[in-house]
Specification:
mainly alpha; about 180 residues
Length: about 180
């Protein structure tokens, strides 16, 4: 990929992520105001976003045309950006206000682990493959598989209302 193509991909990905960040929270709020549970309005939204990103990530190495590749990269990295505010919204529903700062700090810290491990693992996959292209393909497929697994797991397990009841909290988010 040329430097100009890389710059274009980064711009499109960033723009797409920004649009999603600005629109998803109002969309989730609208769903909640219509009585849709947090499980479906924010839990499913973040889970499906990760699954869509995973599919785009896995398909990317098999597409040669620059236009579709640009769309796939924007989906793969832009959709994941949506999960961050949704994750914090969902977490806030099941953590008492007095503990939120600590829990959200721990969550943020754990959220950096993939960013620390991914470059090492990707480099290892590329270095040990027969060709760099094969290594990149393996890296994209591995990332897609992990993301799809985690997204599907989240879809089946994120249930803020149930968890809040188990913890003796109101199901409604606290300010």
């Amino acid at each position: 990929m040329s430097a100009a193509a890389s710059a274009t991909a980064i711009s499109v990905m960033s723009g797409f992520g920004l649009v999603l960040l600005l629109t998803v929270s109002p969309f989730v709020d609208a769903l909640k105001s219509r009585g849709v549970s947090s499980r479906w309005s924010s839990g499913a939204a973040q889970s499906i976003a990760v699954c869509v990103a995973a599919c785009a990530m896995a398909v990317f190495p098999f597409v040669d045309a620059s236009g579709p590749r640009l769309v796939l990269i924007a989906l793969a990295f832009g959709m994941v950006a949506v999960t961050i505010p949704l994750h914090y919204m969902t977490t806030a529903e099941v953590v008492p206000p007095a503990q939120r700062g600590v829990v959200l700090g721990i969550v943020a810290g754990l959220g950096t682990l993939p960013g620390l491990m991914a470059p090492f693992l990707t480099g290892h996959l590329i270095d040990t493959a027969d060709t760099p292209a094969a290594g990149y393909t393996t890296a994209f497929l591995t990332a897609g598989a992990v993301m799809l697994t985690v997204g599907a797991f989240a879809l089946t397990t994120i249930r803020p209302e149930r968890d809040a009841r188990r913890l003796g909290l109101d199901a409604e988010p606290q300010p």
